[in-house]
Amino acid sequence: MASGTPTQVAPTLGYDAIQDLVRAIPFRPRLSRFIFLRHGETEGNRKGVYQFPETPLNTAGEAQAAEAASILALASISRVVASPMMRAWRTAAVVTDGRDITPEPDAALQERIYIGLFGTPVGTLDWRVDPPACESLETFVHRTGNGLSRWLAREDDPEGDLLLVSHGGVLLVLAALTGVDLHTELRRNATPILFQRASGGWEATAAG
Hints:
The chain is 31% helix and 15% strand. It has helices at residues 15-22, 43-47, 59-71, 86-96, 137-152, 168-178, and strands at residues 33-38, 77-82, 104-105, 161-166, 193-198, 201-206. The longest helix is centred in the C-terminal third of the chain and has 16 residues, at 137-152.
């Protein structure tokens, strides 16, 4: 996305558990396409620590958000929904700057909440592990999966696409719901992803 060394994307250990859990979520999307954008880089991303909700974008993250805004400048976007965590909310604000669109907050799109681990090193992240005093994987997938399903159950807007601004963990739940295989480049910070219905399912490609 932005210039400089990109933040490393963590391996998806335990992704099979996410796939198992989304099977219990009613998923009846009516949108034929939409855009997903992970937030820009933070110091928490760079250092590899569990992040507080109020963690802001760092300088690289601000540049990444601006670059995402440039990529999406010609995209027809009619609605923007964002996680209220500061890093996602700021990314949405940068992308909508100069547009006649006000981002809408949705707490269902927040990242998995690791309250008991905030500020500590992530190390090897296994999504199947439920650390003490943290949101369980089942709760996280139920929350985010139902939130995503609710937004995707909307009808296509003839005036433009829905843009969801959220987090890496939420992107994994979305990938499991839609059955797409996300390669590493699409999972990097502030990379706009276009999801479109294809014959027999969904496909995800870099937007712009």
